[in-house]
Amino acid sequence: MNTDFSSKIENAKIDFSPKTIDTLQLNLTKMCNQACTHCHVDSSPRRREAMSHELLERALTLLEADTRVTTIDLTGGAPELHGDFKWFLSELTRLRRRVIVRHNLTVTWDPHPLTGESMEYLPEFFKENRLEIVSSLPYYQEYFTDRQRGDGVFQKSIKSLQILNRLGFGKSGSGLILDLVYNPVGPFLPASQKGLENDYKRELKQKFDIEFSKLFAITNMPINRFAYQLKKLGSYEEYMEKLHTAFNVSAAESVMCRNMVSVGHDGRVFDCDFNQMLNMDFKKNEKSLTLFDIDFETFSKRTIQVANHCYGCTAGEGSSCGGSLV
Amino acid sequence: MANYYESSDLKKFGEVGTFAKEKMDKFWAYYNDVTGTDSALSKREKSLIALAVAFAKQCPYCIDAYTTACLENGSNPEQMHEALHIVSAMEAGIALVHGVQMQNVLKSKGAM
Q1: Which ranges of chain B does DSSP label H, i.e. alpha helix?
Q2: Fewest Cβ atoms nearer than 10 Å: which of A70, A131, A326, B99?
């Protein structure tokens, strides 16, 4: 690769400073009922890391004090597996903010990895709390989906989507949001988000009578488990070159880290979920700071940390937790 | 030269323009306009056609490039395999239809 990311944005004179903090993304737990090949969090049923109750209370205190954060984005792992999930959701509902849950669709059908508890209450619970659901469905066909996420995932996902539809999620006019996420099965860039959305809508409706709100196309980030897979295939350099070649100035100007704070299970704060996985945390005098040490105002004045994985967010149409950027 | 075809050579395609550069520049402008834009045909359709041509011409560079291009323009393996079968069917049909010429000669020789 010719240019490191830091030099690239400097040469292109792109403003990479924080604009505001309107989104608080909380990685509630690394525990997940699945272990997907593309997962940059390296989540699996065996992971036990989770936010403490005190940390969740601290997040609520900060949210009460600062109304600029309008969106709370709950992720993991499977955030629903956190022991305080139901309590925390009821508290967030009281604050009347937009709450997104990154729901993997299969967690409803697998027993809790730690407690064995059934999770089949989730769809009704989502409706009671009027959560926005963002769910990964790597493709509208079984082949790509199961290849990436494991055998049987597609059928379980379809079953969940049909139930969510019956409750009104993804149906126009219901006010209940159900967004889907596409990400490529291997080392290639996602196709145009709009074209893929049309394909998903047509195929899922025709074959399974499923509807959804929007499709987000997300680029696979060359870190952790996906980076390992790339190296195993001998494709890492080629993939990085592809991301570098596809650098898009418009996407770079709209990256999500300029509007958000990402908090890890241990309370450390990051520019985004990816920096979190690379331990590129917010420090002062070499000391890692946590949500207990800072407020949103302090964090909004930081310098965003970049490295070459950031090419993943600026390639082609761009990529973020909310899909393409341009 | 260990092998005539190396996958890394695909990246060197641009170097063909080291000489007669203006002609290669014209080629690239034409090529990118034809293959890299949505027009009467979408980029997805164009990539599938290009993949089919790659099979027909048996160009490993093109198969590599357009398999990826098909994925990045939203095609799936099922559609790409159908493109392959269209090429196979056409190749078979093209061979078979030339049987008419053989039969014409056979008839001219009184052998049919």
Answers
A1: 21-35, 43-57, 60-72, 77-97, 99-108
A2: B99
Q: How many CB pairs under 8 A join A and B?
A: 28
- The contacts of residue B40 (CB under 8 Å, 6+ apart) are none
Look at residue B41 and tell me whether its pLDDT is greater than 90.
yes
CB contact under 8 Å between A143 and B44, yes or no, is no
Write out the two tokens for A33.
């009922």
Tell me if A312 sits within 8 A of A220, measured CB to CB: yes
Interface test with B, best of A188, A198, A201 (most B CBs within 10 A): A188
Q: What pLDDT does residue A1 have?
A: 60
B59-90 confidence digits (pLDDT tens): 999 999 999 999 999 999 999 999 999 999 99
Tell me which residue in A141, A192, A195 faces B76 most closely, judged by beta carbons: A141
What ipTM describes this predicted complex? 0.78
* Contact at CB, A184 and B71, closer than 8 angstroms: yes
Q: Cβ contacts (< 8 Å) between A196 and chain B: which residues?
A: 74
Closest CA to A237 of A227, A248, A225: A227
Q: What is the pLDDT of residue A26?
A: 97
Would the CB atoms of A143 and B77 count as touching at under 8 Å? yes
Mean pLDDT by 10 residues, chain A (326 residues): 85 91 96 84 91 97 93 95 96 93 96 94 96 94 86 94 98 96 91 95 97 95 88 91 92 91 96 93 91 90 93 89 81
Q: Measure Cα distances from A168 to A125, A173, A181 in Å.
A: 13, 9, 19
Distance CA B28, CA B49 (A): 18
Minimum-distance CB partner of A192 among B68, B74, B77: B74
Q: Rounded to an integer, what distance in angstroms lies between the CA atom of residue A39 and that of residue A50?
A: 17
Looking at chain A, the number of H-run helices and the number of E-run strands are 13, 10
Contact between chains at B71 and A191 (C-beta distance less than 8 A): yes
- Tell me the sheet residues that pair with A134: A102, A179
What is residue A51's predicted lDDT score, i.e. its pLDDT? 97
